[in-house]
Write a structure and sequence with these properties.
Layout: H1 2-30, E1 39-45, E2 49-51, E3 56-64, E4 71-77, E5 88-93, E6 100-102, E7 107-109, E8 118-120, E9 125-130, E10 138-145, E11 151-162, E12 170-171, E13 176-177, E14 183-192
Parallel strand pairs: 2-14
Antiparallel strand pairs: 1-3, 3-10, 4-9, 4-11, 5-10, 6-9, 7-8, 11-12, 11-14, 13-14
């Protein structure tokens, strides 16, 4: 008899546990507010006019002004280039991970989907990343760029925080779209003879 009571208690307890995990707890977790990391980005070029053979600097300062997040990314892309070798040089960065060099034709994430949607890169870029990201944490990246052709040299700069929970999770939040379908700040330097 005692054995049946113990087995009954175990069966009822397990049934209650499974009912809670299937019906009650998911609603509790889904109802919780998600953290919203919010990147802010400032970028500056050292000169908007240079002569062919000269270099200019692109300096970025980014910050998470929102909640705690998993990943903070700053990207500098070069739509007038087919490669960065010998043209773009990383001078300094203080991100926790080494920068990633993306080449034309590489498969990359798109539309702030965290990799669920992808496109093939139409031009090269450099991504600097830190993880995790605490509120108020700042990061810098400094590039030296030596264009090898005359005319306008364009750089696209953006920052994305993951989890990407809303439009607050990327900077800028409007303007020109890049090949990934994501908003960018646009900087142009005229390269003269």
């Amino acid at each position: 008899m005692k054995k049946f009571i113990i087995i009954g208690i175990i069966v009822v307890s397990l049934s209650a546990y499974f009912a809670m995990t299937v019906f009650v707890l998911p609603e509790k977790f889904l109802g919780k507010d998600q953290f919203t990391p919010t990147p802010y980005l400032e970028a500056e070029v050292s000169s908007t006019q240079i002569n062919l053979g000269e270099s200019f600097r692109l300096s970025t300062i980014s910050e998470n002004i929102g909640d705690y997040g998993d990943i903070h990314i700053v990207s500098a892309a070069f739509p007038t280039l087919t490669k960065t070798d010998g043209i773009v040089r990383m001078v300094s960065y203080d991100f926790s991970n080494s920068p990633i060099y993306i080449e034309s034709g590489d498969e990359i994430g798109a539309k702030y989907s965290g990799g669920l949607e992808t496109v093939y890169a139409q031009y090269p870029s450099i991504e600097a990343m830190s993880r995790p990201i605490h509120p108020g944490t700042k990061y810098t990246m400094d590039l030296q760029i030596t264009p090898d052709e005359l005319g306008p040299f364009t750089v696209y700069v953006k920052s994305i925080d993951i989890p990407h929970t809303s439009s607050l999770s990327h900077f800028p939040t409007e303007g020109q779209l890049d090949h990934q379908g994501e908003y960018v700040l646009v900087y142009t330097v005229n390269v003269n003879p």
